[in-house]
Amino acid sequence: MLRWARACRVPRGLLGPSTTRCSAVPSVLSSSDSSGGGRVVGNPRPLPLSYKLLDGEATLPAIVFLHGLFGSKTNFNSIAKAMAQRTSRRVLTVDARNHGDSPHSPDTSYEAMSQDLQGLLAQLGLVPCVLVGHSMGGKTAMLLALQRPEVVERLVAVDISPADTTPVSHFRNYMAAMKSVDIPEKVPRSHARKLADEQLSSVIQDPTVRQFLLTNLVEVNGHFSWRVNLDTLAQHFDKIMNFPQRPESYSGPTLFLLGEKSRFVQPSHHPEIRRLFPRAQMQTVPNAGHWVHSDSPQDFMDAIGGFLA
Fold first, then answer.
1. pTM for the structure as a whole
2. What confidence tens digit (pLDDT) does each residue in 74-108 have?
3. Residue 134 is a catalytic residue
4. Among residues 114, 135, 161, 294, which one is catalytic?
5. Which residues contact 128 (CB under 8 A, 6 or more apart)?
6. Gap between the Cα atoms of 58 and 88, Å rounded
7. Which of 18, 231, 236, 249 is catalytic?
8. Rg (CA), the chain
9. Element (H, E) at 179
10. How many CA atoms lie within 13 A of 131 on its CB side?
11. Pick the catalytic residue: 67, 99, 269, 290?
12. Which end of the chain is least crowded, N or C, by CB within 10 Å?
């Protein structure tokens, strides 16, 4: 049975201040020729990702924001608008596969997510660009920079490293809590959110985290569900928390932007960061946790603005 998601495309040459064109696309059962429950053979096939593009000066590399696990392009709405005004650059926000309005797929690999992004950037004529990726999006950005350095003019990895982050992540608990939520059909949306929030609170004490997760609660024909592909994300959780082993390095300018209160990037990760990204700088945002752009948006934008200067 197919699920339907929204994917947005911007035609070349028809860009206004903010142009978004949407069409319905089915969920994809495999991202390449496959057998055995979605096992991928060969290179992943790019999916048509949902995105929003803000117009700007075409002679400057665009800024591309990539969200983390359970996030969506809307996480960067206000920051994208502010950065477009501040830098006069085009700014792209993107929903990763299995998130937001992008299609679902059983392939959750970073190789597949990198291929998705490469296809979109080429389609929009945004090569080379500045990649800014948070958490899962940061790992996608790092892999793309390593695979295709000519595509990435500069790289910003937000509170993430090219290492296994399972030990410091509570995401597995979040998924279990989300899967256990039970909401009756045909209740008002405001009541549904309240019920979901109450059920999540038994596991997730932080109300900010709960509100972030609740952005994924959607209603279709009176039935409430999560728009993220929880089953697939849970099945491949360890793969998402890790990072593909790569022999090459990326020699472009790189900024690792860390939250002071976060433990996602450990000193033990530094040697691998230096090996893969020899020009890496590290900057810590005071009083910010893992969601740096949400906790300290002004400091976040100042750091990126300084890195671009």
1. 0.86
2. 999 999 999 999 999 999 999 999 999 999 999 99
3. no
4. 135
5. 61, 150, 151, 152, 153
6. 9
7. 231
8. 19
9. helix 171-180
10. 33
11. 290
12. N
